[in-house]
Automatic annotation (TrEMBL):
Coiled coil: none annotated. It comes from the Bacteria. InterPro entries: Cd-R_transporter. The chain crosses the membrane at residues 6-32, 44-67, 73-89, 101-120, 140-160, 172-194. The lineage of its organism: Bacteria, Bacillati, Actinomycetota, Actinomycetes, Micromonosporales. The keyword Transcription regulation does not apply. Keywords: Membrane, Transmembrane, Transmembrane helix. This is Cadmium resistance protein CadD, predicted permease.
Amino acid sequence: MTDLWATASAATAVFAATNLDDIVVLTVLFVAARGTGRPRRWQIVTGQYLGITALVAAAVVVAAGLLVLPEPWTGLLGLLPIALGVRALRSRPRTDDDTPPPAVVGGLLGVAGVTIANGADNIAVYVPVFRTLDPGDGVVYLVVFTALVGVWCGVAALLGGHRRVVDLVGRIGHWLVPAIFVAIGLVILVGSGVPGRLVDLAG
């Protein structure tokens, strides 16, 4: 039992450390769902589960030596949130009013795509972790990750329904929400080392 709790605690720490930024993204999506109806709440939750599942599956496959991910080119996934943010900035209303900000992500696949892009760097953490786990501990990690995705969505839904958060996004969300997505994309690109690799190729 002690080993089980220790493994579950370690899994919780790994998930929390690699997915703190997802709280921001999920909160923004829930605020958008509340104001515009897009994406729908079930699409946010399901998309988050699909995205995390894809990340974990990729990490398990890489850890098993069945696939080699090209580094740092996975960071190119950062272009997705940048593109979504720029599109939303271009579609923002010209006047300041109480209309809700444009939906940056419109549906299930969009949510899953943003989750994968935002978590591409998670694979670098998950791979060495899963390499050291025996099958039993691996199952514990998967169960904990599954439960924590639900917790993350619940926390973000609460934040997305908080009056102050909703009021803030209502006032400045037309540029704040797209700007958050652009910033996330830039962090992914720069953090993955893609710009440096492009400079090396150009040289």
